[in-house]
From TrEMBL:
One of its GO terms (cellular component) is cytoplasm. This is D-alanine--D-alanine ligase. Its EC number is 6.3.2.4. Its main location: cytoplasm. It catalyses: 2 D-alanine + ATP = D-alanyl-D-alanine + ADP + phosphate + H(+).
Amino acid sequence: MVRLAVLRGGHSMERDVSLATGRRVQHALERLGHEVHPMDVEETTTERLIELEPAAVFVCLHGPGGEDGTVQALLETLGIPYTGSGPLSSIRCMDKDYAKRALAAAGLPTPRFCTFVRRAMNEMGAAAALNVAADSLGYPLVVKPAREGSSFGLSRVERPEELLDAVYEAFGYDAKILLERWVEGREVSVPILEPAGEAPRALGLVEIRPREGAYNFQAKYTPGMTDFAIPAELPPGTASRLEETALAVYRTLGCSGFARVDTIVEGETPQVLDVKTIPGFTETSTFPLAAEAAGLSFERLVEIILDSALRTEAAPKL
């Protein structure tokens, strides 16, 4: 038994999801026999961590503040081991602009995109380039915040007259947004687990099938609104290519411990949309569903992730 802290909640738009993930992780750790101290993010969090001196922190914070390297850098300053990826990898993955540029530079498939920053819109009149960008990508296209998850602020734009409203919507969530080519195909999530001392491996391919419309916030977290095919019903060659691509993405972005690579399979080609360094662990989340299908109980999944964090001989995280 060891003393652990579970960081959950926070101040992002994904607070409720983080609380649900944190509660489930907390209960799993308690069933494994550990002394668990759940912590929400507040002004006294650092003082509480210093006083508690936990053997490790299980980070269950989603979105800004949790997945952007902020808490990871703090925990490294305090010398406390923690679950998941390090500060640099977290920054890369949280910001879709950074992540997609790194993937493109490595020759990995990701939809074409254009980036807009609010400051450039205000100071340089960058709004004049919106139509140029949209025309280069073609309609339909996607407009989304660069640093949000759970589909917050995301819009599918069918026609030029819808573009400006979608841009304003996305800027309501982040000062940097992306216009991205719309990809038609099967939505497949690839959870990746990296046990201590072992190479990362894909737990399985999870095909996501919303019963109505898009895989939005409601469809992600409301039981019964989405069906899942595990493993995804893909031709063997396509499935193998997707798994290899996801692992290459994981390595390229410097992830460690675990992560989830979200893709659309366009024909036979996987297009990488996003990488989550702290994926949800709710009852409807794809990561624990894939683990269960692979023969891992939720407690065993949590134990593997914790063990990776506790390995003092592990190499420093990126």
